[in-house]
Structure of Putative enzyme:
Amino acid sequence: MDVKGLGAIVTGAASGLGEATARKLAAQGAKVAIFDMNVEAAQKVADEIGGIAVECNVADAASAEAAFATAREAHGVARIVVSCAGIAPASKIVGRNGAHDLDLFSKVINVNLIGTFNMSRLACADMIAQDPVNDEERGVVINTASIAFADGQIGQAAYAASKGGVASLTLPIAREMAPKGVRVMTVAPGIMATPMLLGMPEEVQEALNKSVPCGRMGKPEEFANLVNHIVENAYLSGEVIRMDGALRMAPK
């Protein structure tokens, strides 16, 4: 599917993987709506790429529905929806302060898993009501998991569970949507050079680079390039693609 002229939504695009993806899609000619809770940062990116910034709590039905309506009014129905919004707090099941906080676990599941499902359901509902853009496809939904879905480390129980859920959503939704002309894919990144990691001490960054068989962290632009390829390749659906430089994470 050629992205030129199509409406696109990218969540969590005020920074990191989402920002790189929004910039890539805009450079390819898409009309991009950035969904993020950080409206100021989102607006800055939107201004630079000629898109729009929309405040959105991805885990809230009313907020998401309103955000989709805003994007639809500005750019038409989004034919490309990429979910990058997520959180990754670390906590052991039993730590110094006792058992894992249940509210924290619920929050991670709510943002990462329910938020991704929320975006997917609204995207699919909009897409299937439209005519195909190329006599075949009505749209594509691309979600973001993590290699933690398979290689969860100590302290990542909530995060790994949430990303495992995202990975498991992929095939059933893809199977349901395939006859309707909508593809569904998931990317599972490894250690990526996001602002959070690049803000760590130099020795920590070096250790992270050495842990990857390919010798370095992935670049957000490489994630964005993969997203763009998925959009363009009409036979990709129902799969989780690991993007990790051959990394298999150790227990800790």
About this structure: The first strand starts at residue 7 and ends at 11. The mean pLDDT is 96. The first helix runs from residue 16 to 27. The chain has nine helices and nine strands.
